[in-house]
Every structure is written in C-alpha cells, then in structure tokens.
Amino acid sequence: MMSTPKPKAKLLPFDAARYLTDDQAIAEYMTAVLDTEDTDLLLLALSDVARAKGMAQVAKDAGLGRESLYKALAPGAKPRLDTILKVARALGVRFTAVSSPHSTPTARSAIAP
Fold first, then answer.
1. For the chain, which residues score pLDDT lower than 70?
2. Are the beta carbons of 5 and 74 closer than 8 angstroms?
3. Is 26 exposed, middle or buried (0-12, 13-18, 19+ CB in 10 A)?
4. pLDDT given at position 103
5. How many helices (H) and strands (E) would you count in the chain?
6. Helix 39-53 and helix 55-62: axis angle, to 10°?
7. 19 Rama sector, left if φ>0, alpha if ψ -120 to 50, beta otherwise
8. Any idea what DSSP says for residue 37?
C-alpha cells in the first residue's frame, strides 16, 4: 500500500507589525531595538510600528508623503534626525536619554559631589 505524501506546512514570514497591538507592546519593542544600537534595525522597527498603525495615517501625522515615509524607513536609508523624530511623534513614541552603565565620566561630564 502506497501512502500519499503529506502536504508541506506553509510557513508565513514573521511580521512584527501583527503583534504590535497596543502602546505597551510598541514601547517594549522600541526599547529592545534601541538597546541594540543598530540603526538599520531601528528603521525596520519604526517601519513595523508604522505598518501596525497604518502607513498612510502615520505619513499624514508626520507631515510626510506616504512614499517619502516608505523611502525614509527603507533598509539602508539615511533619514535625517528630524524625519525620524517626526515619525516617532506620529507613532506616539518618545526617545529618552538615560545614563549608560558602561560610560565613564570625563572631565566635562563628571558631576560634582
């Protein structure tokens, strides 16, 4: 008796945007990405969040054309900081600076006792 081969399972590519359903998930995702200090990954993460929220609406809220938003967040793009900040604001994301535990104080940045 011959057995028929089982059909192969079709795997869908992972899409982070499907899981970014609330502000807490977005904040945790962006924090994890920023911790990597990888600029390309940051652009990808901003793109994921923008897709989760709707690219057209994010572009409008950021004061950019939809195509300009896609170009700014494309892999290898080098968008200006003001563009990144506009997109972050439109996404409801705020970047915050904190002291790095790996930094050593210099004469200019040392805090007097």
1. 1-3, 102-113
2. no
3. buried
4. 61
5. 5, 0
6. 110
7. alpha
8. T
Q: In 3-state terms, what secondary structure has residue 108?
A: coil
Give whole-number Cα distances, 38 to 21, 26, 88, in Å: 24, 17, 16
- Alpha carbon separation from 1 to 4, 57 (Å, rounded): 10, 59
- The DSSP code sequence of 61-98 is HHT--HHHHHHHTSTT----HHHHHHHHHHHT------
Instruction: Indicate the burial class of 59 (C-beta count within 10 angstroms; 0-12, 13-18, 19 or more).
Output: buried
**10 Å Cβ neighbour count for 84?**
18
pLDDT of residue 10: 86
pLDDT for position 109: 45
Residue 89 tokens, joined:
């604001």
